[in-house]
# Entry
Amino acid sequence: MATAAYGAEYSHFFEVRLPVFNGPIDLLLHLVKQRELPIEKVALAEVASQYLQCVEIMRHFDLDIAGEYLVIAATLLSIKSCVLLNKPVELIEDEDGNLLDPHEELLRKLREAKLFRDSVAALNQRQLLNFDVFASPGTLDGVDAPPISYQPHDAWLLGQAFRKMLDRCGQEQAVLSIAVDQVSVVERMISIIDFLRKQGSWVEFENLIPSPPSRLSLIASFVALLELCKRQVIELRQEDIGGRISVALVSGFGADDLDELELSSEFDTEQSVEKEKKAGASV
Amino acid sequence: MSLESDVLENVALIEALIFANGEPISIERLSVAANLERNEVEKAIAVIQSKFSAPENGFELVQVAGKYQFRTKPQFALYLRSLKAERPRRLTNAAMETLAIIAYRQPIVRSDIEKIRGVDVTPTLKTLIERGLIRIVGHQGGVGQPALYGTTEEFLKLFGLNSLAELPTLRDLNEVSRDPGEVEPDETIGTSPPDVRADAV
# Structure
Protein backbone atom coordinates (compact mmCIF):
# COMPACT_ATOMS: atom_id res chain seq x y z
CA MET A 1 0.00 0.00 0.00
CA ALA A 2 1.73 3.19 -1.10
CA THR A 3 1.01 6.74 -0.20
CA ALA A 4 -2.71 7.11 -0.66
CA ALA A 5 -5.00 10.09 -0.94
CA TYR A 6 -8.38 10.32 0.69
CA GLY A 7 -10.35 10.93 -2.45
CA ALA A 8 -8.70 12.25 -5.55
CA GLU A 9 -9.75 15.85 -4.99
CA TYR A 10 -8.17 16.02 -1.55
CA SER A 11 -4.96 14.45 -2.74
CA HIS A 12 -2.83 17.34 -1.60
CA PHE A 13 -4.54 17.86 1.75
CA PHE A 14 -4.50 14.50 3.33
CA GLU A 15 -1.91 11.81 2.71
CA VAL A 16 -1.86 8.56 4.56
CA ARG A 17 1.62 7.12 4.97
CA LEU A 18 1.50 3.38 4.63
CA PRO A 19 4.28 0.82 4.62
CA VAL A 20 5.36 0.36 1.04
CA PHE A 21 4.94 -3.04 -0.49
CA ASN A 22 6.34 -4.06 -3.82
CA GLY A 23 3.29 -5.94 -4.92
CA PRO A 24 1.06 -8.63 -3.47
CA ILE A 25 3.81 -11.16 -2.74
CA ASP A 26 5.58 -8.61 -0.60
CA LEU A 27 2.34 -7.78 1.21
CA LEU A 28 1.58 -11.43 1.82
CA LEU A 29 5.10 -12.01 3.09
CA HIS A 30 4.68 -9.14 5.52
CA LEU A 31 1.40 -10.54 6.85
CA VAL A 32 2.86 -13.98 7.38
CA LYS A 33 5.98 -12.60 9.06
CA GLN A 34 3.95 -10.27 11.27
CA ARG A 35 1.99 -13.23 12.60
CA GLU A 36 5.24 -15.16 13.02
CA LEU A 37 4.05 -17.99 10.83
CA PRO A 38 6.12 -20.31 8.66
CA ILE A 39 5.49 -20.26 4.93
CA GLU A 40 3.01 -23.11 4.76
CA LYS A 41 -0.50 -23.59 3.40
CA VAL A 42 -1.96 -23.48 6.88
CA ALA A 43 -0.40 -20.06 7.45
CA LEU A 44 -1.69 -18.75 4.13
CA ALA A 45 -5.19 -19.94 4.96
CA GLU A 46 -4.96 -18.02 8.21
CA VAL A 47 -3.89 -14.71 6.70
CA ALA A 48 -6.29 -14.94 3.76
CA SER A 49 -8.96 -12.80 5.41
CA GLN A 50 -6.43 -10.20 6.47
CA TYR A 51 -5.02 -10.03 2.96
CA LEU A 52 -8.50 -9.50 1.55
CA GLN A 53 -9.12 -6.72 4.06
CA CYS A 54 -5.91 -4.99 2.93
CA VAL A 55 -6.90 -5.22 -0.70
CA GLU A 56 -10.34 -3.84 0.15
CA ILE A 57 -8.78 -0.89 1.94
CA MET A 58 -6.54 -0.22 -1.02
CA ARG A 59 -9.53 -0.20 -3.33
CA HIS A 60 -11.38 2.09 -0.95
CA PHE A 61 -8.55 4.59 -1.23
CA ASP A 62 -8.90 4.42 -4.97
CA LEU A 63 -5.51 2.83 -5.55
CA ASP A 64 -4.96 1.01 -8.76
CA ILE A 65 -5.08 -2.63 -7.86
CA ALA A 66 -2.95 -4.66 -10.24
CA GLY A 67 -4.63 -7.82 -11.43
CA GLU A 68 -1.98 -9.82 -9.64
CA TYR A 69 -3.43 -8.81 -6.27
CA LEU A 70 -6.74 -10.37 -7.17
CA VAL A 71 -5.22 -13.51 -8.67
CA ILE A 72 -3.39 -14.09 -5.41
CA ALA A 73 -6.52 -13.32 -3.44
CA ALA A 74 -8.28 -16.06 -5.37
CA THR A 75 -5.42 -18.49 -4.74
CA LEU A 76 -5.50 -17.70 -1.02
CA LEU A 77 -9.21 -18.41 -0.81
CA SER A 78 -8.69 -21.63 -2.71
CA ILE A 79 -5.96 -22.62 -0.26
CA LYS A 80 -8.21 -21.75 2.68
CA SER A 81 -11.06 -23.84 1.39
CA CYS A 82 -8.74 -26.76 0.65
CA VAL A 83 -7.28 -26.60 4.13
CA LEU A 84 -10.62 -26.28 5.88
CA LEU A 85 -12.45 -28.86 3.83
CA ASN A 86 -9.46 -31.12 3.30
CA LYS A 87 -10.00 -31.01 -0.43
CA PRO A 88 -7.31 -31.83 -2.96
CA VAL A 89 -5.98 -28.90 -4.98
CA GLU A 90 -6.97 -28.40 -8.62
CA LEU A 91 -4.02 -28.36 -10.93
CA ILE A 92 -3.79 -25.66 -13.58
CA GLU A 93 -1.83 -25.37 -16.80
CA ASP A 94 0.96 -22.87 -17.26
CA GLU A 95 2.01 -21.19 -20.52
CA ASP A 96 4.14 -24.17 -21.58
CA GLY A 97 1.32 -26.59 -21.01
CA ASN A 98 2.78 -28.08 -17.85
CA LEU A 99 0.50 -28.93 -14.96
CA LEU A 100 1.11 -26.80 -11.91
CA ASP A 101 -0.09 -26.86 -8.36
CA PRO A 102 -1.09 -23.21 -7.88
CA HIS A 103 -0.82 -23.49 -4.10
CA GLU A 104 2.72 -24.79 -4.27
CA GLU A 105 3.51 -22.11 -6.84
CA LEU A 106 2.44 -19.39 -4.43
CA LEU A 107 4.44 -20.96 -1.63
CA ARG A 108 7.48 -21.15 -3.90
CA LYS A 109 7.15 -17.48 -4.86
CA LEU A 110 6.85 -16.51 -1.22
CA ARG A 111 9.90 -18.52 -0.22
CA GLU A 112 11.92 -17.00 -3.03
CA ALA A 113 10.81 -13.50 -2.08
CA LYS A 114 11.73 -14.20 1.53
CA LEU A 115 15.19 -15.46 0.55
CA PHE A 116 15.67 -12.34 -1.49
CA ARG A 117 14.57 -10.05 1.34
CA ASP A 118 16.81 -11.89 3.78
CA SER A 119 19.84 -11.62 1.52
CA VAL A 120 19.38 -7.86 1.23
CA ALA A 121 19.02 -7.62 5.01
CA ALA A 122 22.18 -9.69 5.46
CA LEU A 123 24.22 -7.32 3.34
CA ASN A 124 22.70 -4.29 5.02
CA GLN A 125 23.73 -5.58 8.40
CA ARG A 126 27.38 -5.54 7.55
CA GLN A 127 29.69 -2.65 8.24
CA LEU A 128 30.22 -0.69 5.08
CA LEU A 129 33.62 0.68 4.25
CA ASN A 130 33.64 4.48 4.16
CA PHE A 131 30.33 4.59 5.95
CA ASP A 132 30.55 2.56 9.15
CA VAL A 133 34.27 1.92 9.17
CA PHE A 134 37.15 3.80 7.60
CA ALA A 135 40.66 3.00 6.48
CA SER A 136 43.66 5.04 5.59
CA PRO A 137 44.62 5.30 1.93
CA GLY A 138 48.28 4.51 2.63
CA THR A 139 51.36 6.01 1.09
CA LEU A 140 53.18 2.99 -0.30
CA ASP A 141 52.54 2.48 -3.96
CA GLY A 142 52.99 -1.25 -4.24
CA VAL A 143 50.11 -3.01 -5.86
CA ASP A 144 49.12 -6.30 -4.32
CA ALA A 145 46.79 -7.54 -7.02
CA PRO A 146 48.34 -9.52 -9.84
CA PRO A 147 47.79 -8.04 -13.28
CA ILE A 148 44.40 -9.01 -14.57
CA SER A 149 44.44 -10.83 -17.87
CA TYR A 150 42.04 -9.94 -20.62
CA GLN A 151 38.48 -10.20 -19.52
CA PRO A 152 35.39 -9.28 -21.48
CA HIS A 153 34.68 -6.18 -19.49
CA ASP A 154 38.19 -4.87 -20.05
CA ALA A 155 36.95 -3.70 -23.41
CA TRP A 156 34.18 -1.84 -21.62
CA LEU A 157 36.72 -0.18 -19.30
CA LEU A 158 38.87 0.83 -22.25
CA GLY A 159 35.78 2.22 -23.92
CA GLN A 160 35.00 4.36 -20.89
CA ALA A 161 38.53 5.71 -20.75
CA PHE A 162 38.57 6.47 -24.44
CA ARG A 163 35.23 8.17 -24.25
CA LYS A 164 36.72 10.56 -21.71
CA MET A 165 39.70 11.20 -23.93
CA LEU A 166 37.55 11.75 -26.99
CA ASP A 167 35.51 14.27 -25.07
CA ARG A 168 38.65 16.09 -24.01
CA CYS A 169 39.87 15.97 -27.59
CA GLY A 170 36.84 17.99 -28.49
CA GLN A 171 35.09 18.46 -31.75
CA GLU A 172 37.69 18.70 -34.46
CA GLN A 173 37.23 21.05 -37.33
CA ALA A 174 37.78 19.03 -40.46
CA VAL A 175 38.23 22.34 -42.22
CA LEU A 176 41.68 22.82 -40.72
CA SER A 177 43.45 20.31 -42.92
CA ILE A 178 42.75 19.69 -46.55
CA ALA A 179 44.25 16.24 -46.72
CA VAL A 180 42.99 13.96 -43.97
CA ASP A 181 45.86 11.99 -42.56
CA GLN A 182 45.42 8.29 -42.96
CA VAL A 183 46.10 6.53 -39.74
CA SER A 184 46.77 2.85 -39.84
CA VAL A 185 45.63 0.62 -37.04
CA VAL A 186 48.42 -1.82 -37.72
CA GLU A 187 50.94 1.02 -37.51
CA ARG A 188 49.51 1.93 -34.12
CA MET A 189 49.74 -1.68 -32.99
CA ILE A 190 53.40 -1.85 -33.98
CA SER A 191 54.28 1.43 -32.26
CA ILE A 192 52.46 0.36 -29.12
CA ILE A 193 54.31 -2.95 -28.95
CA ASP A 194 57.57 -1.17 -29.64
CA PHE A 195 56.97 1.39 -26.92
CA LEU A 196 56.01 -1.26 -24.40
CA ARG A 197 59.09 -3.30 -25.18
CA LYS A 198 61.33 -0.30 -24.69
CA GLN A 199 59.61 0.57 -21.39
CA GLY A 200 59.78 -2.99 -20.17
CA SER A 201 57.07 -2.46 -17.56
CA TRP A 202 53.54 -1.22 -17.02
CA VAL A 203 52.74 1.93 -18.91
CA GLU A 204 49.75 4.20 -18.38
CA PHE A 205 47.69 3.88 -21.49
CA GLU A 206 47.52 7.63 -21.97
CA ASN A 207 51.23 7.50 -22.77
CA LEU A 208 50.45 5.20 -25.66
CA ILE A 209 48.42 7.79 -27.48
CA PRO A 210 50.36 10.07 -29.83
CA SER A 211 50.26 13.62 -28.63
CA PRO A 212 48.50 15.85 -29.48
CA PRO A 213 45.78 13.32 -30.14
CA SER A 214 43.63 13.75 -33.16
CA ARG A 215 40.29 12.00 -33.16
CA LEU A 216 41.54 9.66 -35.86
CA SER A 217 44.67 8.66 -34.04
CA LEU A 218 42.70 8.22 -30.81
CA ILE A 219 40.27 5.89 -32.49
CA ALA A 220 43.02 4.00 -34.28
CA SER A 221 44.84 3.58 -30.97
CA PHE A 222 41.68 2.30 -29.32
CA VAL A 223 41.13 -0.29 -32.02
CA ALA A 224 44.82 -1.22 -31.91
CA LEU A 225 44.67 -1.82 -28.16
CA LEU A 226 41.56 -3.94 -28.51
CA GLU A 227 43.20 -6.01 -31.22
CA LEU A 228 46.29 -6.54 -29.11
CA CYS A 229 44.09 -7.50 -26.16
CA LYS A 230 42.23 -9.99 -28.26
CA ARG A 231 45.44 -11.56 -29.47
CA GLN A 232 46.67 -11.76 -25.89
CA VAL A 233 49.71 -9.67 -26.68
CA ILE A 234 49.02 -7.13 -23.94
CA GLU A 235 47.44 -7.09 -20.52
CA LEU A 236 45.38 -4.40 -18.87
CA ARG A 237 45.27 -3.33 -15.27
CA GLN A 238 43.33 -0.69 -13.41
CA GLU A 239 44.98 0.58 -10.25
CA ASP A 240 41.85 1.39 -8.40
CA ILE A 241 38.26 1.88 -9.34
CA GLY A 242 37.91 4.66 -11.88
CA GLY A 243 41.65 5.05 -11.84
CA ARG A 244 44.26 4.97 -14.51
CA ILE A 245 44.48 2.03 -16.79
CA SER A 246 47.93 0.54 -17.33
CA VAL A 247 49.10 -1.63 -20.17
CA ALA A 248 51.96 -4.06 -20.44
CA LEU A 249 53.14 -6.74 -22.78
CA VAL A 250 52.17 -10.21 -21.72
CA SER A 251 55.12 -11.54 -19.73
CA GLY A 252 57.51 -13.51 -21.84
CA PHE A 253 56.66 -11.69 -25.04
CA GLY A 254 59.87 -11.41 -26.97
CA ALA A 255 61.25 -10.39 -30.35
CA ASP A 256 60.42 -13.78 -31.87
CA ASP A 257 56.81 -13.43 -30.88
CA LEU A 258 56.74 -10.09 -32.65
CA ASP A 259 58.03 -11.61 -35.87
CA GLU A 260 55.46 -14.36 -35.70
CA LEU A 261 52.61 -11.96 -35.22
CA GLU A 262 50.63 -11.31 -38.33
CA LEU A 263 49.22 -7.96 -37.61
CA SER A 264 46.23 -6.91 -39.60
CA SER A 265 43.09 -4.95 -39.08
CA GLU A 266 39.85 -4.88 -41.02
CA PHE A 267 39.83 -1.14 -40.58
CA ASP A 268 42.97 -0.46 -42.55
CA THR A 269 42.53 0.68 -46.12
CA GLU A 270 45.06 0.07 -48.85
CA GLN A 271 46.46 3.55 -48.50
CA SER A 272 47.20 3.21 -44.82
CA VAL A 273 48.72 -0.23 -45.32
CA GLU A 274 51.08 1.27 -47.89
CA LYS A 275 52.10 3.92 -45.42
CA GLU A 276 52.61 1.24 -42.78
CA LYS A 277 54.86 -0.76 -45.05
CA LYS A 278 57.05 2.27 -45.47
CA ALA A 279 57.06 2.99 -41.75
CA GLY A 280 57.58 -0.67 -40.94
CA ALA A 281 61.06 -0.55 -42.42
CA SER A 282 62.24 1.67 -39.60
CA VAL A 283 60.72 -0.36 -36.73
CA MET B 1 53.82 -14.09 29.90
CA SER B 2 56.21 -11.89 27.98
CA LEU B 3 56.81 -12.36 24.31
CA GLU B 4 60.24 -13.06 22.94
CA SER B 5 61.88 -9.86 21.85
CA ASP B 6 62.24 -10.89 18.25
CA VAL B 7 58.54 -11.59 18.02
CA LEU B 8 57.94 -8.11 19.39
CA GLU B 9 60.25 -6.64 16.80
CA ASN B 10 58.40 -8.49 14.10
CA VAL B 11 55.14 -7.20 15.48
CA ALA B 12 56.32 -3.62 15.19
CA LEU B 13 57.57 -4.15 11.66
CA ILE B 14 54.40 -5.83 10.46
CA GLU B 15 52.36 -3.09 12.08
CA ALA B 16 54.33 -0.47 10.22
CA LEU B 17 53.91 -2.26 6.91
CA ILE B 18 50.17 -2.77 7.29
CA PHE B 19 49.68 0.81 8.40
CA ALA B 20 51.66 2.37 5.58
CA ASN B 21 50.12 0.15 2.93
CA GLY B 22 46.64 1.38 3.75
CA GLU B 23 44.95 -1.04 1.41
CA PRO B 24 44.51 -4.62 2.63
CA ILE B 25 47.80 -6.49 2.31
CA SER B 26 48.36 -10.23 2.08
CA ILE B 27 50.52 -12.41 4.27
CA GLU B 28 52.59 -13.30 1.20
CA ARG B 29 53.40 -9.70 0.50
CA LEU B 30 54.13 -8.95 4.15
CA SER B 31 56.40 -11.97 4.27
CA VAL B 32 58.38 -10.74 1.27
CA ALA B 33 58.54 -7.13 2.41
CA ALA B 34 59.49 -7.99 6.00
CA ASN B 35 61.77 -10.82 4.94
CA LEU B 36 60.08 -13.15 7.39
CA GLU B 37 58.72 -16.64 7.17
CA ARG B 38 54.99 -16.96 6.71
CA ASN B 39 54.40 -18.39 10.16
CA GLU B 40 56.36 -15.56 11.75
CA VAL B 41 54.11 -13.08 9.99
CA GLU B 42 51.07 -14.99 11.19
CA LYS B 43 52.27 -14.90 14.76
CA ALA B 44 52.86 -11.18 14.55
CA ILE B 45 49.41 -10.65 13.10
CA ALA B 46 47.79 -12.59 15.92
CA VAL B 47 49.54 -10.37 18.44
CA ILE B 48 48.54 -7.21 16.59
CA GLN B 49 44.94 -8.35 16.33
CA SER B 50 44.60 -8.96 20.02
CA LYS B 51 46.53 -5.80 20.87
CA PHE B 52 44.24 -3.54 18.86
CA SER B 53 41.05 -5.21 19.93
CA ALA B 54 41.47 -3.57 23.34
CA PRO B 55 38.78 -0.94 23.98
CA GLU B 56 41.24 1.92 24.22
CA ASN B 57 42.14 1.51 20.54
CA GLY B 58 40.18 3.43 17.94
CA PHE B 59 40.98 1.13 15.07
CA GLU B 60 41.54 -2.57 14.78
CA LEU B 61 43.20 -5.10 12.51
CA VAL B 62 40.62 -6.78 10.31
CA GLN B 63 40.86 -9.48 7.73
CA VAL B 64 39.10 -8.69 4.46
CA ALA B 65 39.35 -10.58 1.19
CA GLY B 66 42.02 -12.75 2.78
CA LYS B 67 44.23 -9.74 3.47
CA TYR B 68 44.88 -7.52 6.47
CA GLN B 69 43.98 -3.90 7.03
CA PHE B 70 43.52 -1.41 9.83
CA ARG B 71 39.96 -0.13 10.02
CA THR B 72 38.27 2.13 12.52
CA LYS B 73 35.85 0.56 14.95
CA PRO B 74 32.19 0.93 13.97
CA GLN B 75 31.11 2.82 17.08
CA PHE B 76 32.85 5.92 15.78
CA ALA B 77 31.06 5.98 12.44
CA LEU B 78 29.09 9.15 13.10
CA TYR B 79 32.13 11.19 14.09
CA LEU B 80 34.19 9.97 11.17
CA ARG B 81 31.42 10.67 8.70
CA SER B 82 31.30 14.25 9.86
CA LEU B 83 34.91 14.67 8.78
CA LYS B 84 34.16 13.68 5.23
CA ALA B 85 33.76 16.66 2.94
CA GLU B 86 31.04 15.10 0.87
CA ARG B 87 28.29 12.92 2.27
CA PRO B 88 29.30 9.31 1.89
CA ARG B 89 27.28 7.70 -0.85
CA ARG B 90 25.47 4.59 0.16
CA LEU B 91 24.29 2.26 -2.51
CA THR B 92 20.70 2.81 -3.58
CA ASN B 93 18.10 0.22 -2.62
CA ALA B 94 17.97 -0.96 -6.21
CA ALA B 95 21.73 -1.42 -6.28
CA MET B 96 21.76 -3.24 -2.93
CA GLU B 97 18.99 -5.59 -4.02
CA THR B 98 20.71 -6.46 -7.28
CA LEU B 99 24.03 -6.84 -5.51
CA ALA B 100 22.48 -9.15 -2.90
CA ILE B 101 21.05 -11.38 -5.60
CA ILE B 102 24.37 -11.59 -7.40
CA ALA B 103 26.29 -12.15 -4.17
CA TYR B 104 24.15 -15.10 -3.12
CA ARG B 105 23.38 -16.60 -6.48
CA GLN B 106 26.59 -16.08 -8.43
CA PRO B 107 27.28 -16.78 -11.15
CA ILE B 108 23.99 -15.49 -12.50
CA VAL B 109 22.77 -14.00 -15.78
CA ARG B 110 20.90 -10.74 -16.13
CA SER B 111 17.57 -12.27 -17.05
CA ASP B 112 17.54 -14.39 -13.89
CA ILE B 113 18.29 -11.32 -11.80
CA GLU B 114 15.38 -9.56 -13.47
CA LYS B 115 13.05 -12.47 -12.76
CA ILE B 116 13.68 -12.04 -9.05
CA ARG B 117 13.63 -8.25 -8.92
CA GLY B 118 10.85 -7.84 -11.43
CA VAL B 119 12.43 -4.77 -13.05
CA ASP B 120 15.03 -3.95 -15.69
CA VAL B 121 18.43 -4.15 -13.97
CA THR B 122 20.64 -2.90 -16.81
CA PRO B 123 21.32 0.56 -15.34
CA THR B 124 21.97 -0.93 -11.91
CA LEU B 125 24.39 -3.46 -13.37
CA LYS B 126 26.23 -0.62 -15.06
CA THR B 127 26.55 1.25 -11.75
CA LEU B 128 27.77 -1.84 -9.95
CA ILE B 129 30.35 -2.56 -12.63
CA GLU B 130 31.51 1.06 -12.53
CA ARG B 131 31.98 0.81 -8.79
CA GLY B 132 33.96 -2.36 -9.33
CA LEU B 133 31.64 -4.46 -7.18
CA ILE B 134 30.62 -6.96 -9.84
CA ARG B 135 32.20 -8.28 -13.00
CA ILE B 136 31.53 -10.66 -15.83
CA VAL B 137 32.86 -14.03 -14.75
CA GLY B 138 31.96 -16.00 -17.83
CA HIS B 139 29.21 -16.73 -20.31
CA GLN B 140 26.33 -19.11 -20.15
CA GLY B 141 26.10 -21.59 -22.97
CA GLY B 142 23.13 -21.53 -25.28
CA VAL B 143 21.32 -18.86 -27.22
CA GLY B 144 23.11 -15.49 -27.16
CA GLN B 145 25.74 -16.64 -24.66
CA PRO B 146 24.56 -14.21 -21.99
CA ALA B 147 27.13 -12.88 -19.55
CA LEU B 148 27.38 -14.40 -16.09
CA TYR B 149 27.90 -11.92 -13.23
CA GLY B 150 29.75 -12.38 -9.98
CA THR B 151 31.13 -10.21 -7.20
CA THR B 152 34.69 -8.88 -7.00
CA GLU B 153 37.37 -8.37 -4.39
CA GLU B 154 36.15 -4.77 -4.05
CA PHE B 155 32.79 -6.18 -3.00
CA LEU B 156 34.46 -8.15 -0.21
CA LYS B 157 36.38 -5.07 0.90
CA LEU B 158 33.29 -2.88 0.91
CA PHE B 159 31.31 -5.24 3.10
CA GLY B 160 34.21 -6.29 5.28
CA LEU B 161 34.02 -9.92 4.21
CA ASN B 162 36.95 -12.28 4.26
CA SER B 163 35.44 -14.45 1.56
CA LEU B 164 32.08 -15.28 0.05
CA ALA B 165 31.77 -18.07 2.59
CA GLU B 166 31.38 -15.36 5.21
CA LEU B 167 28.10 -14.15 3.76
CA PRO B 168 25.58 -14.86 6.51
CA THR B 169 23.75 -18.07 5.70
CA LEU B 170 20.17 -17.11 5.14
CA ARG B 171 18.85 -19.49 7.73
CA ASP B 172 20.67 -17.48 10.40
CA LEU B 173 18.27 -14.63 9.78
CA ASN B 174 15.18 -16.67 10.49
CA GLU B 175 14.85 -15.37 14.03
CA VAL B 176 11.20 -14.57 13.51
CA SER B 177 9.90 -17.31 11.24
CA ARG B 178 10.00 -20.78 12.64
CA ASP B 179 11.07 -23.81 10.66
CA PRO B 180 8.37 -25.24 8.44
CA GLY B 181 6.47 -27.96 10.23
CA GLU B 182 6.85 -26.51 13.70
CA VAL B 183 3.33 -25.14 13.95
CA GLU B 184 2.06 -24.86 17.52
CA PRO B 185 -0.75 -27.27 18.33
CA ASP B 186 -3.11 -24.51 19.46
CA GLU B 187 -2.91 -22.62 16.18
CA THR B 188 -6.12 -23.66 14.48
CA ILE B 189 -7.98 -21.85 11.80
CA GLY B 190 -11.03 -19.86 12.69
CA THR B 191 -10.66 -19.78 16.45
CA SER B 192 -9.18 -16.30 16.66
CA PRO B 193 -10.21 -13.34 14.58
CA PRO B 194 -7.45 -11.96 12.36
CA ASP B 195 -5.91 -8.99 14.13
CA VAL B 196 -5.77 -5.85 12.07
CA ARG B 197 -3.02 -3.52 13.23
CA ALA B 198 -4.04 0.07 13.42
CA ASP B 199 -1.10 1.20 11.35
CA ALA B 200 -1.79 -1.37 8.66
CA VAL B 201 -4.72 0.71 7.51
Summary: Strands of chain B lie at 59-64, 67-72, 108-109, 134-139, 147-151. Residues 5-21 of chain B form the longest helix (17 residues). The two ends of chain B are 64 Å apart (CA to CA). The first strand of chain B starts at residue 59 and ends at 64.
